Amino acid sequence: MLARASILSASTARRVLPRHFSLAGFAKDEDGMYNVSTKVEWDAIVATGKPVVGDFWAPWCGKCRQISGFVEILAEDYPNVAFVKMNTGEEGVQEIKAALGVEVLPTFRFFNGGAEVGTPVTGYKKTPLEDQVKALAAA
Q: Where do the coiled-coil regions begin and end (predicted)?
């Protein structure tokens, strides 16, 4: 019972974070994306409670490069959604990738209110990706 109380208090502490954290602490790149390289950064962005698209990619991934232009268009079309790119080749991103069970590239995961929502999209699938972003933006 004590362990459960500790877990509950830890999750409660995380829920307080959105009141004190904003995306203003992160800079967008020239393509309108936030680039994250640590789990601490990722957790902070998700904890804002704002709509977030997590884009797991790698420079060697052909499908990642193919869909990147489309993701940039979505980021421009949906300015209230934070698009967060995570290069899976970076050591700090491995922890995020493992925590979310990401095994295929590219993978897109969707978060709102500090929790994962929607259905993950993997590979070069423009329509399902756009549908999930629309749903996220409308929530």
A: none
